[in-house]
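Service request form, structural biology core

Requester: graduate student, group of Dr. S.
Request type: structure prediction, single chain
Budget code: on file
Notes: please return the result as structure tokens.

Sequence provided:
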Amino acid sequence: RIEGSGFMSWTHMGPQLPLEVLDLQGLEYLTDSALETLSTSDHAGLLAELDLRSCPLVSNRGLHFITATATNLRTLRLEAQEEIDGDGLALVQRRLGHSLTTLDLERMPGLTDDAVTQLEWPVLEILSFQGCAQLSDASVHTVKDRCPRLRLLNLSRCPNITPAQTDGLARCIDTVLH
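Core staff response, request fulfilled:
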């Protein structure tokens, strides 16, 4: 298990370097308490990119800790997170909506149209909903209205989003993958 104070022990080795990118992808035993420890470190405020893809023990609680101090994040990857739901995403939006330019929400089974309608991302440029089976055309409308700077939207493997919606969106966004 990767948790608690032991998680940050690697930061005490050698000279202190500014940590801007942290890739924790696939750490299946990474816990919310590890993110809590990270959030209390000097590194959290410097992070520009955080990859939490396929970390199944990370939940809304972990997002609560890390978004409180990693307020300069520009890229957040949450692919395949079963324990993160609309409440967690609303928290991310409230705390990081002003800075996030890339958001990866691929294969999140708990992501629904209701959760998406609560979100507003004024500076978001890249968004991936790939494999989010519960999303429908309603999410496409929300994204179109609330993500004015969006350049790339990945909707592939979203069976409830119709081609007509993606075609209409393609007129407003540089790249729509469906």
